Protein: IS5/IS1182 family transposase
Organism: Azotobacter chroococcum
Amino acid sequence: MKQLSFADAEYAGKRKQTRRERFLLEMDQVVPWSG
């Protein structure tokens, strides 16, 4: 299982993701959605 640090998420956010998309990404780290 890969785990992103906040810095990695922040970098990805500045690179191509919006704040909302980054939020959803962080939520996906916490809650493993099925499907």
In short: Residues 1-35 form one domain. The two ends are 16 Å apart (CA to CA). The chain has a mean pLDDT of 72. The chain has one domain: 1-35.
